[in-house]
Specification:
- The protein has about 625 residues and is of the alpha/beta class.
- It is about 30% helix and about 25% strand.
- The protein contains 18 helices and 31 strands.
- The longest helix has 17 residues.
- The protein is globular, with a radius of gyration of 24 Å.
- The structure holds coenzyme A (COA) and adenosine monophosphate.
């Protein structure tokens, strides 16, 4: 029996014993009496009578244990030329002062704080400062536009917004303050104050009575102590794309999160205190929450916070320069990043300039990894390439390979085996388990393990209908795939309106809502089309209202601009085409799956329910003409 098999069996057979043992790695203000409380929440809760503080566990406890001089965070920003290192003691002190500044302005336990910041150390400090006060942070990714920020502000109702004057993208400075101002003008809810981190690339005008300089506020503040909270109190809300324009507020609880994440550093990533871990993602995504900020610090590692891109900052050797310079042992990124590097440095000439002997493994997630990219990465680095399957909802890998438990053979194209605590099955449409090796809808038998969501912010009923009602007794992942005879899980793609663009999760339904709002559009469909760099990119087909005679290029330009203004540049919506009609079933349902197949040049058959098969040929012709 491998270490993984034993751990998985232990978590399945006696979850209380398994998770109580894991909980011993956490400092509790009040230790939980048991792990699982089946009668609370939609399917039970974890560690419900425990009390702790996540920031204490991430920072103070390491300082108190004599590790204050260890490096906690390395900031490396090739895009700005900035670099910094913070020891655990320094990071604790900065976070305590930022928390003090927020507390002095009225932020307390249970209050929400929206963080709209680029990849700077202050973003991590802001998250930890909220955790210190028992406040609930909600980080909004910088690539979202003002209406998205406004929607999150209205849903989370924050007391404060923490932001920076700008973010830096290759070749352009993204001024955040005007975006925040526009969002606050649109939002019904008004936060009491905003703290703005001024950056030299584009200092912002502060709005008197509302905005204050973050660094000045930190400098003037008295440090705040950690506030103990209930294990079930939310640590953060992270909004993610669902099938509609209204994002889902994933709620992460303090207790289960701390326990599960700390355990993953040992078992999945195989790291010990003092090791360097680098996750090249963004704090705006779940991967950034879990593996740039919380898990590495909970486990006493050194984390790297990187402000740059895999290519162009300045070149495709940047990742390898960072690994060598900071002695990174484990790196984590999205397959898209590796595809971008492969395109620019196919023979690995830039990688060869750096000493990568300290790097032990590369973890990938965020989207399906094509075998080519996995094999190319393995050849380039000569280290294990570990694909692992994730969702914002779960907060940590559902499946993985387990470096800390004795690595089992990796299978290219599979996301590994189920993590301890996750019972992954493939179901048919009636909720019956399909035989091993057969494709189905991937689901997780309830209860979900610690750290996974057990509600949505302000939307308990939506949580049930979105995740729990399709297959009673299971959490529906909305991913299709299979579990093979040896327990490897193969994830094939989403079965809903969610697409993964460059590892970023986006809703085609939301893009359709934006296109439909254009005055000339009668109806539309958005599908995710295969893309050799980004995995998928959105493609919009629109039917114009009768009588509209404007040039097609003018309308499509407006549609592209509209998605950028309303959702944000991250949507990467650049391709809109006008068609005469959309293919539909006789009952009027748009055949998006068939449109996607046509767009990807895959074989397709007209579904038996189609209203008029000739439309498929029309669509194929429009796409072929435009592609040419
Ligand atoms: N703030 C403002 N704008 C942002 C942004 C941010 N934080 N992040 C991305 N954008 C913008 C980009 O500048 C780009 O704008 P453009 O249309 O003007 O060029 C747009 O959003 C699309 O961004 P992206 O999809 O990232 O494409 P890109 O061409 O800039 O970069 C890659 C391509 C492959 C380098 C990049 O997508 C990448 O690094 N991907 C890895 C993703 C990742 O780490 N995901 C986390 C999951 S683990
Ligand atoms: P997010 O919530 O942004 O982490 O996106 C979650 C979705 O990304 C999943 O539902 C999958 O569709 C996809 N995904 C994440 N990791 C993987 C992976 N390793 N293999 C295949 N798909 C993945």
């Amino acid at each position: 029996m491998t270490g993984h098999t034993a751990a998985h069996a232990a978590a399945a057979q006696n979850p209380d014993a398994y998770w109580m043992e894991a909980a011993r790695d956490i400092d509790w203000h009040r230790a939980p009496s048991r792990a699982f409380f089946p009668d609370q929440g939609a399917f039970g809760t974890w560690f419900a009578d425990g009390e702790l503080n996540t920031c204490h566990n991430a920072l103070d406890r390491h300082v108190e244990a004599g590790h204050g001089a260890r490096t906690a965070l390395i900031y490396d920003s090739p895009i700005s030329g900035a670099a910094a290192r913070y020891t655990y003691a320094e990071l604790r002190d900065q976070v305590a002062k930022l928390a003090g500044a927020m507390a002095a302005r009225g932020v307390g336990r249970g209050d929400r704080v929206v963080i709209y910041m680029p990849m700077v150390p202050e973003a991590a400090m802001a998250m930890l400062a909220c955790a210190r006060l028992g406040a609930i942070h909600s980080v909004v990714f910088g690539g979202f536009a003002a209406p998205e920020l406004a929607a999150r502000i209205d849903d989370a109702q924050p007391v404060a917004v923490l932001t920076a004057s700008c973010g830096l993208e290759p070749g352009r400075v993204v001024a955040y303050k005007p975006l925040l101002d526009a969002a606050l003008a649109q939002a019904q809810h008004k936060p009491r104050f905003c703290l703005v981190m001024q950056r030299p690339q584009a200092p912002a005008e502060l709005t008197p009575g509302r905005d204050e300089d973050m660094h000045a506020a930190i400098a003037a503040a008295a440090p705040a102590a950690c506030v103990p909270v209930r294990a079930t109190d939310p640590l953060y809300i992270l909004y993610t794309s669902g099938t509609t324009g209204k994002p889902k507020g994933i709620v992460r609880e303090n207790g289960g999160h701390a326990v599960a994440l700390r355990r993953t550093i040992r078992d999945i990533y195989g790291l010990q205190p003092g090791d360097v871990m680098w996750t090249a993602s963004d704090v705006g995504w779940v991967v950034g929450h879990s593996y740039i900020v919380y898990a590495p610090l909970l486990a006493g590692l050194t984390t790297v916070l990187f402000e740059g891109k895999p290519v162009g900052t300045p070149d495709a050797g940047t990742f390898w320069r960072v690994c060598a310079e900071h002695q990174v042992r484990v790196m984590f990124t999205a397959p898209t990043a590796m595809r971008a590097i492969k395109k620019e440095d196919p023979d690995g000439k830039l990688a060869a300039r750096h000493d990568l002997s300290r790097l032990e493994a590369l973890f990938l997630a965020g989207e399906r990894c094509d075998p080519d990219t996995a094999e190319w990465s393995a050849k380039l680095l000569g280290k294990p390439i570990i694909d692992h399957w994730w969702q914002t909802e779960t907060g940590w890998p559902i499946t993985a390979a387990f470096r800390g438990l004795g690595l089992f053979p990796l299978r290219v194209g599979s996301g590994g085996k189920a993590s301890p605590g996750f019972d992954v099955v493939a179901l048919d449409q009636h909720g019956q388990e399909v035989p091993r090796g057969t494709m189905g809808q991937l689901a997780i038998r309830l209860p979900l393990p610690p750290a996974a969501l057990n509600t949505l912010w302000n939307a308990a009923e939506r949580f049930r209908t979105s995740y729990l009602s399709t297959f009673p007794g299971f959490y529906d992942t909305s991913d299709a795939g299979m579990v093979d005879a040896e327990g490897y899980v193969w994830v094939m793609g989403r079965t809903d309106d969610v697409i993964n663009v460059a590892g970023h999760r986006l809703s085609t339904g939301e893009m359709e809502e934006v296109l439909s709002g254009h005055r000339d559009v009668a109806e539309c469909a958005v599908v995710g089309r295969a893309d050799s760099l980004k995995g998928q990119v959105p493609l919009g087909l629109v039917v114009l209202k009768s009588g509209v005679n404007r040039p097609e290029a003018e309308v499509t330009r407006e549609l592209v601009a509209r998605v950028r203004e309303q959702i944000g540049p991250v949507a990467a919506f650049k391709d809109a085409r006008v068609v005469a009609r959309l293919p539909k079933t006789r009952s009027g349902k748009i055949l998006r799956g068939t449109i996607r197949k046509i767009a990807d040049g895959e074989a397709y058959a007209a579904p038996a329910t189609i209203d008029d098969p000739a439309i498929l040929t029309e669509i194929a012709e429009v796409l072929a003409r435009a592609d040419a």
